[in-house]
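Journal club side-thread
Mid-discussion, someone asked how the predicted structure for our own chain would compare to the paper's figures. Pasting it here so we can look after the session.
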Amino acid sequence: MILLQISASQGPQECALAVAKALQRLLDEARKCAVNVESVELVPGAKAGTFLSALLTLDGEAATELARRWCGTLQWICASPYRPNHGRKNWFIGVAAYDEPPPAEMSEVRFEACRASGPGGQHVNKTDSAIRAIHLATGISVKVQSQRSQHANKRLAMLLIEQKLAESASQAKSAQRAARRMFHHGVERGNATRVFRGERFEPVA
């Protein structure tokens, strides 16, 4: 699954209209290549039927190729439908793709019995009741020695691993959100990867 964002960036209302037109064109292309598109977040523009931003998920065998075709700067060549006497006829919006952060799921965990260390009474350093748990996919590890039995320490270690995986996934999502925020401020004007023309947003070969 791929996250795809279409943004008007800091552009005027014509760019928000371009986002809406690009979204419709993308949906048409997705249907033709059997890619499922779901709207995650649509930020409406000041004018009816326009969007400042559209965040979507793409799912299907052709999702990566579809995202690749759309990523970058899009140029829309059209006279402003809102300002008839406006001289500008080139409007730019941006499209960026983000890999979805992996869910915080448990996979294979290796457990190692080890000698407890530090203060803790007569049982410390006399039995191998402490447990070190290692999440093999990420290398995250924890050591638990607070319980008297290996079984109890193992259960606690699993809970700590789950917590660390959840924190890692949350950080990945936060980093992704920060990248999306920066994207809104950095759409390149010119050097378009795709060009569209007219009210019907027809692609220029």
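Post-session note: Residues 150-183 form the longest helix (34 residues).
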